[in-house]
C-alpha cells in the first residue's frame, strides 16, 4: 500500500519543453548547441534543427499544461529552473528579473491547484558561457557562480518551493562530461584527474546549496539526484560479481559523498591506483561532512550486467554502459526493461545510506500514434505498452514500501511529451499527454490526452489501489 501522503506527479526539465530560448533575457545554455542530443556534435551557436530551442512552448503554455496536470491529480510537479534565465552568462552578480518573474508565475500557477513544485537547480542546462569561458565544472570558480545562483533562487522562492534537487543525475558526468558537467574538452581527451576534480567541485557546490538552503528556510527539503542503474553480475563467477560491485561503486560514490559526507575507501583506492590527484581543501571536507542531503532522489530506467571480460560490454543506451541482460526485453531504443530492478535499487540505497528516497524519473520512451477515438469523439493514443510499463514499475515501488523503504513519491518522466535529452527527438515520447510536434519541427503543438492519462489519473485518485484492477 502507498502511504496517504505519497507524492504522485510528473517530471520535466526546462531545456526540454520551455522553448523561448531567446526570450525574457535568457542566455544560451549548453543544450542550445546540442541539436542532435547527447551523442551528436555541438554547434557554435543555435541552429534551426535544434528542437530544444522551441521545445513544446511550455514558456507560453504552462497554464494550459498545469491545468492538465491538475486534472491528472498531481500532488507534485518536478521541473527545473533554467540557470541561464536567471543569470544569462552565469557569472553575473545581479540576476535577470524577467527570468525570476517567469518562475514566480509558474510556481504560483502550481499552487493554484494545490501542486507542490519539486525544483531541480541544475538539470543539464549550465550557461554556455561558463563552458566556453571557464571550462565548465573543471574550474573551481563555478562553485561560487552556482552559490550565487542558488542563494538568489532560494531567497526568491523560499515560500513557494519546499523540495529542491541540487543536480540532475549528477553521476552522468562520467559518461557525458559536456551535457552533465559543461566540460568542453572532448571526452577522449579529458584526463581522469580533471574529470574527478570537476565532480568534486559539483559535490562541494551541492553541499553549499544544502547549507545555504537550510539557513534561508529550515523547512526546505534538499535532495541529491542520481541516475540509478543497478548492475548485476552476468554470471555467478566471482570475477563477474566483483565487476558488478565495481560498476555499482562508480555511481554510488556520488551518494556516499552527498548522503554520508565523505569519500569512501573504494574511491580513494581508485584514485590512488589510477594516479588521480584531487585538490580537496580541509574546509571542503568539513562542508561535505556537515551538510548532507535530506533525501536521495533517483531516475530509474534500466539495469545492466557486468562481466570481468570488458570486451563483453554491449549494452545499448546513452548514459550507461554494461552487458546486455539475456533475460530482459528492450525498448525501441535498446533500453532494457526491468521493473524488479527498481525494487532492488530502492532497497540497496536505503540499506546503504538510510535516507528517504524519491523516484523522480521513470518512464517509457516509445513511438506513439495519434488516432481518433470515435466512441469518445477525440484524438488519443492507445498506449497500453506504456500503461503496462508504468504499472509494473509502480508495483515494484509498492513492493519496496512493503519492504519498509521510506519512498516519498513518484514522478513519471516526461509526463507531457517533450524533446528527448539523449536524442533531441520528439518521436521518443514519454508523456501521458501527447503534443503535436514532430522531429522536423512541424505540428500545431495541440495537447491530447493519451489512454495512459486516464489510467494514471485513476491510479493517483485511488492512491495506488487501481494498480491491482
Question: Which terms summarize this structure?
Answer:
469 residues; alpha/beta; TIM Barrel; eight-stranded parallel barrel; two-stranded parallel ribbon; 14 strands; 14% strand; globular; GH; 6-phospho-beta-glucosidase; Glyco_hydro_1; beta-glucosidase activity
Give the oligomeric state of the chains in this entry, treating copies of one chain as homo and distinct chains as hetero: single chain
CATH T-level topology: TIM Barrel
CATH class descriptor name: Alpha Beta
Rg (CA only): 21 Å
Give an account of the 3D structure.
The active site is at 361 (nucleophile). InterPro entries: GH, GH_1_N_CS, Glyco_hydro_1, Glyco_hydro_1_AS. One of its GO terms (biological process) is carbohydrate catabolic process. This is 6-phospho-beta-glucosidase. The protein has 469 residues and is of the alpha/beta class. It is built from 14 helices and 14 strands. The chain has one domain (7-468): Glycosidases (TIM Barrel). It is 38% helix and 14% strand. Strands 1-2-3-4-5-7-9-12 form an 8-stranded parallel beta barrel, surrounded by 5 helices. Strands 6-8 form a two-stranded parallel ribbon. The longest helix is centred in the middle third of the chain and has 25 residues, at 192-216.
Amino acid at each position: 500500500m502507498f502511504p496517504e501522503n505519497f507524492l504522485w506527479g510528473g517530471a520535466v526539465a526546462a531545456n526540454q519543453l520551455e522553448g523561448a530560448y531567446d526570450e525574457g533575457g535568457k542566455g544560451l545554455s549548453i543544450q542550445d548547441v546540442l541539436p542532435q542530443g547527447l551523442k551528436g556534435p555541438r554547434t557554435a551557436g543555435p541552429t534551426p534543427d535544434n528542437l530544444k530551442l522551441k521545445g513544446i512552448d511550455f514558456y507560453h503554455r504552462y497554464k494550459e499544461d498545469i491545468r492538465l496536470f491538475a486534472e491528472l491529480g498531481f500532488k507534485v510537479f518536478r521541473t527545473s529552473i533554467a540557470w541561464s534565465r536567471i543569470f544569462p552568462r552565469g557569472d553575473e552578480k545581479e540576476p535577470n528579473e524577467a527570468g525570476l518573474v517567469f518562475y514566480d508565475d509558474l510556481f504560483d500557477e502550481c499552487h493554484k491547484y494545490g501542486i507542490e513544485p519539486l525544483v531541480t537547480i541544475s538539470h543539464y542546462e549550465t550557461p554556455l558561457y561558463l563552458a566556453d569561458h571557464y571550462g565548465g565544472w573543471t574550474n573551481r570558480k563555478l562553485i561560487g557562480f552556482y552559490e550565487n545562483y542558488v542563494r538568489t533562487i532560494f531567497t526568491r522562492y523560499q515560500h513557494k518551493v519546499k523540495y529542491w534537487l541540487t543536480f540532475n543525475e549528477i553521476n552522468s558526468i562520467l559518461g557525458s562530461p559536456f551535457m552533465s558537467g559543461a566540460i568542453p574538452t572532448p571526452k577522449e581527451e579529458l584526463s581522469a584527474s580533471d574529470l574527478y576534480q570537476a565532480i568534486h567541485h559539483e559535490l562541494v557546490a551541492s553541499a553549499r546549496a544544502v547549507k545555504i538552503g537550510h539557513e534561508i528556510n529550515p523547512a526546505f527539503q534538499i535532495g541529491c539526484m542520481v541516475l540509478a542503474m543497478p548492475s548485476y553480475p552476468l554470471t555467478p563467477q566471482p570475477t563477474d560479481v566483483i565487476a558488478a560491485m565495481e560498476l555499482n561503486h562508480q555511481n554510488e560514490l556520488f551518494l556516499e559523498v552527498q548522503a554520508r559526507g565523505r569519500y569512501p575507501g573504494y574511491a580513494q583506492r581508485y584514485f590512488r591506483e589510477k594516479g588521480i590527484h584531487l585538490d580537496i581543501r580541509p574546509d571542503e571536507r568539513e562542508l561535505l561532512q556537515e551538510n548532507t542531503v535530506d533525501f536521495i532522489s533517483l531516475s530509474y530506467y534500466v539495469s545492466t550486467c557486468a562481466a570481468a571480460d570488458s570486451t563483453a560490454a554491449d549494452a545499448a543506451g546513452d548514459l550507461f554502459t554494461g552487458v546486455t541482460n539475456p533475460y530482459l526485453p528492450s525498448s525501441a531504443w535498446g533500453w532494457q526493461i526491468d521493473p524488479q530492478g527498481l525494487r532492488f535499487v530502492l532497497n540497496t540505497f536505503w540499506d546503504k545510506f538510510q535516507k528517504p528516497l524519491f523516484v523522480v524519473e521513470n518512464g517509457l520512451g516509445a513511438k506513439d500514434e495519434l488516432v481518433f477515438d470515435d466512441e469518445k469523439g477525440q484524438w488519443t493514443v492507445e498506449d497500453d505498452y506504456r500503461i503496462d510499463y508504468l504499472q509494473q514499475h509502480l508495483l515494484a515501488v509498492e513492493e519496496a514500501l512493503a519492504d519498509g523503504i521510506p519512498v516519498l513519491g513518484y514522478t513519471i518522466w516526461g509526463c507531457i511529451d517533450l524533446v528527448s535529452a539523449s536524442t533531441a527527438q520528439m518521436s521518443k515520447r514519454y508523456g501521458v499527454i501527447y503534443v503535436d510536434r514532430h522531429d522536423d519541427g512541424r505540428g500545431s503543438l495541440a495537447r491530447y490526452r493519451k489512454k495512459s492519462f486516464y489510467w494514471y489519473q485513476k491510479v493517483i485518485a485511488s492512491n495506488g489501489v487501481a494498480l491491482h484492477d
